[in-house]
Design a protein that fits this description.
Length: 314
């Protein structure tokens, strides 16, 4: 989700700290989803709990920041619907993958999303991509292939690993499409509305999967699933707040701290440990992602200078 409009205060250290905290909470949320999947909770049901219980957190936050009334106005219902379908589908597929693959592997393959955003910007928005970003995308996708290939090629694991890998790759593509849509939505929609109505979309769309295998998870598991929404909502607030103190290009590389959390949590809770191939592929993806983020930051600064110069001329 994108960040709410807010007064900017330059404090990069605080922005980075908030971003790292948000990433840690998101990985913790996914660990709960993984545990729920092991208990037989289907991904659609997990998405429902995640979306429903994030709504109170989001509403309280909007009320506290004064965006509760004006921030929920919608100008493009089709745009929000499309973003909701793509984003909710991406979440459901990622939750499916969490039940089939190690936590660290889902994180590593999921790093394809920012790379695919660049690809989709070229295909659907006509954006020009120069040599640096093109090479970074190719290197990053090669890293994703290194991580995913044993599962896709059937050399090491089971049919479950194949399905899980396909699910997380599809999730990355759909998430990239959702982010591409957000780029368009923010031109005429308040970010508060984008945050809130995505959660509502998640509740409604995931509820449609109820006839397809939902279970009563028991009070303990139901409580944990509710926690995913609360944790996800708090993580969203931290993520949004990070953009108050530092620009996107500064905090974006810290998305990749999620791999450290995924490895640590996976080893402690799920007895998962990455091999050298996975670490090498992940390192390639992370390096490419950081290069893309740095380049995006420079391009953003160039665009702002060009707009400022144009306004002065006018």
């Amino acid at each position: 989700m994108a960040a709410l409009e807010t007064t900017r205060t330059d404090d990069p250290a605080r922005g980075i700290a908030l971003k790292c905290a948000a990433v840690a909470l998101f990985v913790g949320m996914q660990a709960i989803v993984k545990a729920a999947a092991g208990a037989g909770v289907p991904p659609g049901e997990a998405v429902f709990f995640r979306s429903l219980f994030s709504l109170p957190v989001i509403l309280l936050w909007l009320a506290a920041t004064g965006h509760l009334h004006d921030g929920l106005r919608v100008r493009s219902v089709p745009g929000h619907l499309a973003r909701g379908v793509f984003g909710t589908s991406a979440m459901g597929l990622r939750f499916l993958a969490l039940g089939l693959l190690p936590l660290y592997e889902v994180q590593a393959i999921g790093y394809a999303t920012p790379l695919l955003v660049v690809v989709f910007a070229v295909l659907f928005a006509g954006e020009r991509v120069r040599l640096t970003r093109s090479l970074a995308v190719l290197l990053g996708l090669a890293g994703v292939l290194i991580v995913a290939w044993p599962n896709l090629g059937g050399m090491e694991r089971s049919r479950a690993a194949l399905v899980g890998t396909a699910a997380v790759l599809a999730s990355a593509a759909l998430a990239a499409m959702a982010q591409t849509m957000i780029r368009r939505l923010v031109e005429h929609e308040g970010t508060a509305a984008i945050v809130f109505w995505f959660a509502v979309s998640g509740v409604v769309l995931s509820a449609l999967t109820a006839p397809f295998g939902w279970i009563w998870p028991g009070w303990w598991m139901a409580t944990l699933l509710a926690v995913t929404g609360l944790v996800g909502g708090v993580a969203q607030i931290f993520l949004t707040a990070s953009y108050r103190y530092a620009d996107a290009g500064t905090v974006a590389p810290f998305d990749y701290t999620s791999l450290l959390w995924a490895i640590g949590i996976g080893m402690v809770l799920f007895d998962e440990a990455p091999d050298a191939r996975t670490l090498a592929g992940a390192a390639l993806v992370i390096g490419a992602g950081i290069l893309v983020a740095v380049r995006e930051r420079r391009l953003g600064l160039e665009r702002r200078r060009a707009r400022a110069a144009k306004s002065q001329e006018g």
